[in-house]
Amino acid sequence: MKRILILGGSGYIGEILYKELCSYFDTYATYCSSRSHKLNQHYYQYNMEEGGLETILKEVKPKLIISALRGNFKSQLEEHEFLIDFVKNNNSRLLFLSSANVFDAFHHYPSYEYDKTLSESIYGRLKIRVENGLLRLPTAKYVIARLPMIFGQHSPRVREIDWAVQQQIPIEVFPNSVINVNSDRKLAQQIHFIINQQLSGIFHLGSKDLVGHFEFIKAIVERRNHKKASYKQVFTSNEIRYLATLPKENRLPAHLQINYNEVLDDLDLIRKII
Hints:
The protein is of the alpha/beta class. The protein is 36% helix and 20% strand.
């Protein structure tokens, strides 16, 4: 059974991936300070700024490392440089969760897997630096999974919307922004497929269609039966601004693709079950 190590396994995305993969693979993960993970023997305590990653790698001996690390950017960069060197010199691969923000300097059109990256944000530039390190490796050694905004019943973005409505605080929206999105449920299935099929390269894991940011946030508010939401419209430009990543070279099978209405349906479905 393939042994997997998820770095950042107590975070929102990391925990979703752990739950998806642990029944099918010999899966381990790290947590920083979460008490709820301390009793799980497959979780290792790891503080990125204090070190200790080398010890965990020696003990777990993963065939695949999934990086869902968050936190201090300088520490992230140092740890990823170490990871890239590790997979280069060991029988291991790295699946890096990147972001649509590697293209946030391009405003006029969606971006595809092998388009030039350019970012105006510190976050996007961090992701580009890690990606560039991976691109120097043989393709079989890495997966770069670029993620759009991720939504789910317990996702930070949905909880922020719920909280803003409850506190009667306007929800910040960007009327001129066009995005694509994904659900946490579908993302976990997509990552599972990539691992199971031993795929490599760059993948854009967002909805196959685009939607206005304001339109999508209003739809979430309606699906969650909020009656009295208000909005703060933010215009960063007078022009339509795209922050969307679409697949061209590395398309997943039809059953693993999703559109933005299905992302909204996922929220409804989970809400009904709960």
